[in-house]
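note to self: dont lose this again. the chain is below, predicted strucutre after it. 318 aa total, dont forget to put it in the shared folder this time
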Amino acid sequence: MQAAAGTLILPMSEDSADVTFQNPEHPMPEGLLPSADITLISGDYFKTMQTPLRKGRDFTDADTLTSPQVMIVNQAFADKFFPGEDPIGKKLKPGAGDASAGGPAWRTIVGVVGNQHHSMTQPHERAGYYIPANQLPSWCCVVSVVRTSVDPASLEPAVRQLVASMDKDIPVTDVRSMPELMSLQLSQPRFAMVLLGAFAALALTLTVVGLYGVMTYSVSRRTREIGVRLALGAQRAMVMRMVLREAAILLAAGVAIGLAASLAGGSALKTMLYGTAARDPLVLTAVCIVVAVAGLISAYLPALRAAAIEPMQALRMD
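---
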């Protein structure tokens, strides 16, 4: 075991506690106070989670209930509420506090740390601030985090035994490694994407099969016409281009309709996307190119068949 700590909110759990705070430099009415995610942590939390300290200092054992009240903010908090300023030394009053100590207290920002993701699908960094557990004795760190250089599962019996030795009535539940939490976070979006991917593959297959069928039928209906064109001196390459041109017109119409539908319904997919926008121009362009290429390939065989028609046989057909 390399390090261990406690926290109220565990990253990658989608849990959060959005709490308002007062800023004396920018006073606001009670109903319009700014808010951010609050997290109660014990010592060595940032070391355990390997969260970088960007500025200032970490919490220490000297940060007790009777010492000056302090807090640490993440980089997103500093960028949002103190743009272009140094937040170290600023005083804020979080809306959460210890009732036995008279309620919320004014706290001094003593450090800035890197951002932590509370969700794998989180589109933006969320502003948050941390309060030392020693300064809020009526609260508790309900989650323990442990960093180890060995398989985390191998430490579970030892951790359970250690907790039982301190208080046998404390339950130890939901023991998971961070990769497991991340996988659970992605399970629902992954299922949705697999399902949508299957429908997309089916739609592409229907496009290929449908266009192939339409062009094959069109060529069979125009066999005599094509035979006359060839008999009058039309080049076979010209016949192929004619068929492919018709297929390209159908494809262009289908792509235009699909593009309009995707732009109109892109907002419905926003919650299931990660790392890309609902209307990403590169993705839309790539999809249009794939559909167009697949459609033209499917029309190539009917075009090839049309170019191979023998004029005399075509003219003898009823």
